[in-house]
């Protein structure tokens, strides 16, 4: 299946991607960590900013859920340094692309638009599906969310590399 195209950058040579879920302690921080790592590996860190937030404010300032951190650590990622943030209007002005983890988050962002997509609009396996919230489930849900984040990050980085002025290592 074909994944969604990225919107053009607002500022030539710079691109900002925001990953959004409900509380910013499970899915979106995982997406942020994995996407940032892939951006770094591709040599795009000078050009691409990656951040995450939640639509709700319950976990502002908190670390990510220990199960998200454990899944990331087990796969070689560094989850340290995350502090929960809440979405506000500035995200719509500052970010070139906002990626919502599920359809409820997407609705909170005002629905699909050129700059607001579902995270899995960039998943070659399940285009447009939700990333299930693992918060109330077991370890497997966190592993599955991480696997999805890895697939999506690879596709987003490949798309970023095709944008004029945002090129890293080939």
Automatic annotation (TrEMBL):
Q: Name one Pfam family in it.
A: LMWPc
* Source organism superkingdom: Bacteria
Q: Is 4Fe-4S included in the keywords of this UniProt record?
A: no
Q: Which PANTHER family match?
A: LOW MOLECULAR WEIGHT PHOSPHOTYROSINE PROTEIN PHOSPHATASE, LOW MOLECULAR WEIGHT PROTEIN TYROSINE PHOSPHATASE
EC number(s) on record? Answer: 3.1.3.48
- Tell me the GO molecular function terms: protein tyrosine phosphatase activity
Q: Where is the active site?
A: 21 (nucleophile), 27, 133 (proton donor)
Q: Which UniProt keywords apply?
A: Hydrolase, Protein phosphatase
| Family assignment from sequence similarity | Belongs to the low molecular weight phosphotyrosine protein phosphatase family.
Which residues belong to any copy of the Phosphotyrosine protein phosphatase I domain? 15-159
Q: What class of enzyme is it?
A: hydrolase
Name of the protein described by the UniProt record: protein-tyrosine-phosphatase
Species whose genome carries this gene: Nocardioides bruguierae
């Amino acid at each position: 299946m074909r994944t969604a195209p990225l919107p053009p950058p607002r500022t030539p040579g710079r691109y900002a991607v925001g990953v959004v879920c409900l509380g910013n302690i499970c899915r979106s921080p995982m997406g942020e960590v994995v996407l940032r790592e892939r951006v770094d590996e591709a040599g795009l860190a000078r050009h691409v900013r990656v951040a995450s937030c939640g639509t709700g404010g319950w976990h502002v300032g908190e670390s990510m859920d220990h199960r998200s951190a454990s899944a990331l650590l087990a796969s070689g990622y560094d989850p340290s340094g995350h502090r929960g943030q809440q979405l506000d209007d500035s995200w719509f002005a500052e970010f070139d692309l906002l990626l919502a983890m599920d359809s409820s988050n997407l609705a909170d962002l005002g629905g699909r638009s050129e700059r607001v997509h579902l995270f899995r609009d960039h998943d070659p396996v399940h285009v447009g599906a939700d990333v299930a919230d693992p918060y109330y489930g077991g370890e497997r849900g966190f592993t599955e969310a991480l696997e999805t984040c890895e697939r999506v990050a690879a596709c987003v980085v490949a798309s970023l590399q095709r944008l004029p002025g945002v090129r890293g290592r080939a």
